[in-house]
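A.,

Following up on our hallway conversation. Structure tokens first:
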């Protein structure tokens, strides 16, 4: 989806407007540093022009007049000019490199700070591989574009101007020939530019696909191996790689087409210049020193001119990345921020849905006029077939999505008027999808409450029945969890997540019980850990375990976004309605008496 949007925008937004924006938002702050580079370049360009200028005197004074003193003088002057150019180039290159790194760092920070503030809906529709690629690729594109502009203007253009001044001074007539032929090259180049745009964008998209495929592989490696999917994945990856290669080839091809054009024009100018020059020497008695100096200037002008001719092509390729970057930076968070966000003032933690309407964009309304109450300090269990809206209900309490109508309140305060961070301070989500970060076990638990002391972390781990297994890991609390912490068992991961939640000590707990089967012992431990967590707090739990529904103060049966039944386990069983059917289907197995906590496999 993002790709198509880019296409549309690409044709709408002009390159000049984009460069102006980039310059005013980023380039301007770097002006003093760029100015330094430009001054150095000015000196280098003057030194270059001066050395060409000297050639005239070398030819006339030394070669023709044979004046020895002049020879020494000229050689020394040329050596000094050479040193100035060398040192200047070095200083300019270092300065440009540093400016570039600073720009990349700034753009990466800006992108990340922006992205982390966007809502869950944005992440729902954006593949993570694309974000990874953009973070790396688009911020360097900003640097490239600014660099191209400043290298082109600051170095090549200045050098070219200096050399043209020499040409005109030495031989105005010949200069005319060169100056007329130059612009023809520019026109020839322009038509290549449009093609580069499209190809560069397509190349970026293939690259994003490559990253996504790699991520999927890393994440799903167990499934891939278990299902013998290696050949399929290899093929998918090979296709993506081939795609990137073909497109890169295309860019090389289009870019290279500028060179023959320039070669031909170069040869033509040289022929014309040689002809006229020879004519002038033979019949018009011009100064040969000036002629040679002129030819040298033309020769030196060739490289910067060639680069300048390609500038537009490179700019366009870079601008594709800048466009994509701005496309991300321009995404607005969809959830409205209240003008004067209030802190949540908690009483007993009663959560209430009052005539709530909600729809995910594409799938039509999920909740309509939806009423729901979770009493403070009590456990409310949500049950119902998959897709009935249980997880969505929980996401709405966290304000991951905005609602279309009605109100969601906590102790009578509408959550849309609250400061979201205050809201989330009082609400803890423990989902099936347990995220552990690449850090020590201790720090992973401490994520629950960043200021917590080591003793508090340990107390939380004990309450979550995690302390013992943590001590059995290699370095105890200091054990580093690698990517995805695959060395921990499912039950252990869950208990870490519960420890984190206990440490957070929020008054409202949103719980999505895992559906994956655990062995009976882990199951017991996880259950006890959950019990510790729920104590004295408002708990809303998507229940998959029998013991959870049995102990819940209230069970709500959700079907297609509606609560069709609610009450206690015993009352609902007695009513013999939807819950009773669900209970027979989902929770009760023949050999599982009511105290058994074994999980039905989904
Ligand atoms: P449950 O938790 O009961 O299985 P969910 O709340 O996950 O149900 O889903 C309810 C409905 O909303 C389903 O039809 C599902 O396809 C849809 N849905 C869930 N998450 C999203 C999302 N991020 N974007 C669009 N539709 C979604």
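Then the amino acids I'd put at each of the 602 positions:
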């Amino acid at each position: 989806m993002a790709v198509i949007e880019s296409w549309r925008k690409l044709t709408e937004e002009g390159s000049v407007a984009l460069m102006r924006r980039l310059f005013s938002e980023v380039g301007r702050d770097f002006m003093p540093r760029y100015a330094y580079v430009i001054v150095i370049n000015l000196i280098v360009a003057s030194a270059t022009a001066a050395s060409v200028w000297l050639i005239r005197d070398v030819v006339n004074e030394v070669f023709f007049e044979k004046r020895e003193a002049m020879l020494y003088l000229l050689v020394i002057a040329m050596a000094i000019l050479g040193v100035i150019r060398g040192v200047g180039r070095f200083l300019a290159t270092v300065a440009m490199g540093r400016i570039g790194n600073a720009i990349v760092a700034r753009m990466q920070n800006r992108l990340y700070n922006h992205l982390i503030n966007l809502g869950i809906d944005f992440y729902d529709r954006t593949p993570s591989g694309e974000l990874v690629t953009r973070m790396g690729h688009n911020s360097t594109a900003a640097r490239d574009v600014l660099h191209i502009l400043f290298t082109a203007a600051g170095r090549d253009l200045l050098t070219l101007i200096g050399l043209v001044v020499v040409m005109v001074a030495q031989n105005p007539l010949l200069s005319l020939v060169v100056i007329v032929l130059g612009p023809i090259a520019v026109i020839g180049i322009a038509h290549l530019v449009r093609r580069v745009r499209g190809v560069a964008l397509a190349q970026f998209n293939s690259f994003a696909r490559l990253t996504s495929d790699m991520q999927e592989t890393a994440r799903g490696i167990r499934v891939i191996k278990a299902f013998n999917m290696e050949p399929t994945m290899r093929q998918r990856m090979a296709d993506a790689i081939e795609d990137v290669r073909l497109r890169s080839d295309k860019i090389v091809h289009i870019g290279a087409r500028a060179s023959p054009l320039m070669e031909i024009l170069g040869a033509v100018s040289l022929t014309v210049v040689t002809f006229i020059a020879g004519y002038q020497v033979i019949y018009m008695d011009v100064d040969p020193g000036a002629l040679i100096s002129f030819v040298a200037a033309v020769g030196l002008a060739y490289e910067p001119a060639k680069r300048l001719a390609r500038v537009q092509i490179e700019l366009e390729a870079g601008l594709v990345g800048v466009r994509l970057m701005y496309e991300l930076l321009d995404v607005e968070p969809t959830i409205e921020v209240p003008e004067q966000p209030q802190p949540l003032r908690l009483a007993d933690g009663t959560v209430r849905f009052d005539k709530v309407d909600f729809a995910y964009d594409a799938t039509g309304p999920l909740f309509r006029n939806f009423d729901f109450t979770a009493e403070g300090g009590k456990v409310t269990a949500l049950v119902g077939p998959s897709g009935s809206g249980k997880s969505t209900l929980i996401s709405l309490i966290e304000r991951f999505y905005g609602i279309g109508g009605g109100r969601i309140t906590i102790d009578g305060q509408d959550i849309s008027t609250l400061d979201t961070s205050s809201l989330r301070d009082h609400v803890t989500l423990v989902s099936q999808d347990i995220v552990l970060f690449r850090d020590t076990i201790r720090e992973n638990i401490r994520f629950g409450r960043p200021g917590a002391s080591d003793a508090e972390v340990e107390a939380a781990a004990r309450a979550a029945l995690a302390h013992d297994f943590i001590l059995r890991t290699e370095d105890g609390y200091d054990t580093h969890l690698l990517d995805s912490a695959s060395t921990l068992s499912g039950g252990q991961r869950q208990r870490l997540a519960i420890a984190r939640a206990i440490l957070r000590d929020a008054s409202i707990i949103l719980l999505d019980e895992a559906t994956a089967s655990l062995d009976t012992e882990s199951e017991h431990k996880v259950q006890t850990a959950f019990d510790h967590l729920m104590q004295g707090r408002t708990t809303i739990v998507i229940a998959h375990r029998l013991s959870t529904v049995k102990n819940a103060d209230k069970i709500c049966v959700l079907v297609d976004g509606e609560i069709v039944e609610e009450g206690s386990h015993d009352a609902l069983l007695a009513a013999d309605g939807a819950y009773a059917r669900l209970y027979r289907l989902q929770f009760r197995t023949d050999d599982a008496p009511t105290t058994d906590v074994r999980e039905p496999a989904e």
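The chain has three domains: 2-329, 337-426+535-594, 430-505. Curious whether your intuition agrees with the design.

B.
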